[in-house]
């Protein structure tokens, strides 16, 4: 039997594909779907978030969730490009607010992701990225091994990590990205100006440089 959230996603897609729920149609509330199917709110949220990520649904704060046209893959390269490159490609002006930038003892999970012994020192860079006239778009938290300590010489409110790499003879050889849905904690919600426990798209990327060394482990949060 399919997981409950998959059953809800299938139900919603059947309504959309049949034309019963056209573009612009407002979906039942999470509570209404919970009562209809006798399942938990978390299952409903997971189902709706997956369809938001796929571009079939759109959440409008204070109003509800609506059917929308799915985004064409060729309209975005966000899964392979950096945030700065993506916004530049669309002619968008961006700015960065540095939330945290320091050397610290890495948490066990981060050290494992960077393929380092537990307790190793790492470089942490946390940035809130804005698009002009739109507000916060994404919260990036990047972790680097101390091999790349030269990054401490840069002001990442005005320069991209990619450019800093290039100035030191490095480039991104390839990137592994994993995409999912998460619930924002109180701090992340506050930084991004959304309600606590709001849903967000989570993109976890691991970047390897031109020397085939693991360069960056990054967690990016995009509010739904």
Describe the structure.
The chain has 224 residues and is α+β, with helices and mostly antiparallel strands. It contains seven helices and eight strands; from the N terminus they run αααββαβαββαβαββ. The longest helix is centred in the N-terminal third of the chain and has 15 residues, at 4-18. A six-stranded antiparallel beta sheet has the order 3-4-5-8-7-6.
Average per-residue pLDDT, rounded, comes to 84
Percent of residues in beta strands? 25-35%
Strand order across the biggest sheet?
3-4-5-8-7-6
Note the main sheet.
Answer: 6 strands, antiparallel
The Cα radius of gyration reads: 20 Å
How many helices does DSSP assign? 7
Strand tally: 8
Instruction: Catalogue the unreliable spans.
Output: 71-81
Characterize this entry briefly.
The chain is of the alpha+beta class and 224 residues long. 28% of the residues lie in helices and 33% in strands.
Q: How are the SSEs placed, and which strands pair?
A:
Elements: H1 4-18, H2 30-37, H3 41-53, E1 57-60, E2 64-67, H4 83-89, E3 94-105, H5 108-113, E4 121-131, E5 135-145, H6 161-167, E6 172-183, H7 186-192, E7 199-209, E8 214-223
Antiparallel strand pairs: 1-2, 3-4, 4-5, 5-8, 6-7, 7-8
List keywords for this structure.
224 residues; two-stranded antiparallel sheet
């Amino acid at each position: 039997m399919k997981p409950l959230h998959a059953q809800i996603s299938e139900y919603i897609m059947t309504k959309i594909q049949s034309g019963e729920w056209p573009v612009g149609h407002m979906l039942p509330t999470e509570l209404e779907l919970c009562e209809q199917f006798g399942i938990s709110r978390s299952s409903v949220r997971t189902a709706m978030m997956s369809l938001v990520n796929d571009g079939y649904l759109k959440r409008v704060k204070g109003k509800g969730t609506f059917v929308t046209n799915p985004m064409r893959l060729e309209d975005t390269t966000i899964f392979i490009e950096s945030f700065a490159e993506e916004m530049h490609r669309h002619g968008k002006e961006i700015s960065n607010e540095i939330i945290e930038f320091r050397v610290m003892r890495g948490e066990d999970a981060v050290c494992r992701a960077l393929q380092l012994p537990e307790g190793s020192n790492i470089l942490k860079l946390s940035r809130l990225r804005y698009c002009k006239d739109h507000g916060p778009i994404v919260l990036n938290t990047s972790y680097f091994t101390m091999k790349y300590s030269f990054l401490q010489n840069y002001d990442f409110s005005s320069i991209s990590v990619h450019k800093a790499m290039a100035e030191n003879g490095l480039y991104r050889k390839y990137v592994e990205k994993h995409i999912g849905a998460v619930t924002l904690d109180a701090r992340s919600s506050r930084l991004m100006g959304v309600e606590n426990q709001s849903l967000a798209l989570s993109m976890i990327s691991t970047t390897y440089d031109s020397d085939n060394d693991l360069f960056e482990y990054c967690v990016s949060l995009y509010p739904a």
